[in-house]
Amino acid sequence: MTEEQNIVAVVGGTGDQGFGLALRWAKAGKHVLIGSRVRSRAEEAAARIKAAVGDSAQVEGSENADVVARAPLVVLSVPFEAQMATLKSLRAAWRPGQILVDLTVPLEASVGGSPTRLLKVWAGSAAEQAAEHVPDNVSVVGAFHNVGAHALQELQHEVECDVIVCGDNAEARGRVRPWVEAIPGCRYVDGGKLENARIVESLTALLIGINRRYKVPGAGMRITGLPS
Predict the structure, then answer these.
(1) Is residue 157 part of a domain?
(2) Residue 120 to residues 105, 115, 125, 129: CA-CA distances in angstroms?
(3) Across the strands, what pairs with 61?
(4) Of 27, 15, 4, nearest to 155 (Cα)?
(5) Residue 169 forms part of a structural domain
(6) pLDDT, tens digit, for every residue of 65-76?
(7) Residue 76 · residue 102 · CB < 8 Å
(8) In this structure, what are the phi and psi dihedrals at residue 200, rounded to the nearest 5 degrees?
């Protein structure tokens, strides 16, 4: 992996899941750029990661458009209700060849409903909706939907979860693999075309319901029968 390929921008990196991913990647030695609408919030999140991982951590905080312009891999970790506004604000920041990893799940909670139910998305899934609002030369991949924020932030434990990665560009899916495997306990699973994100996103609502019934903070998923 080249120095540039070691850089990731986490848009929404001040939220629970985005912060957890940034924390794990910083601990793994990646160069992490945390984005927020408010620069000071991103800088504060970066400082928290350095406090947890150590001053040698390569982590910076800035505004969303700034971090997107600097990274070949961009992770979008925002609530569903903020997805479209965030993508629209980033239109001028994209560069050809970048990869957008969309974590968005269209939970009914975004409109005041239940977090265990999904909204219907005209495009089919939140990931497919994202693909309609970035330039054609930016590949969109859906991933990390089912990895809980609590598990990510508990650095003393491995994250017991497979990560199903969906995208129409097979090369882009493959480029996400090292980022999955940089998180201890996570395993990369090729989920095929982007339309399969419709299924993967729905599993998040299922896992939230399981968390509630079993009173656990972060149920995960494992796919059996795959080669090790």
Answers:
(1) yes
(2) 11, 14, 8, 11
(3) 34
(4) 27
(5) yes
(6) 999 999 999 999
(7) yes
(8) -65, -40
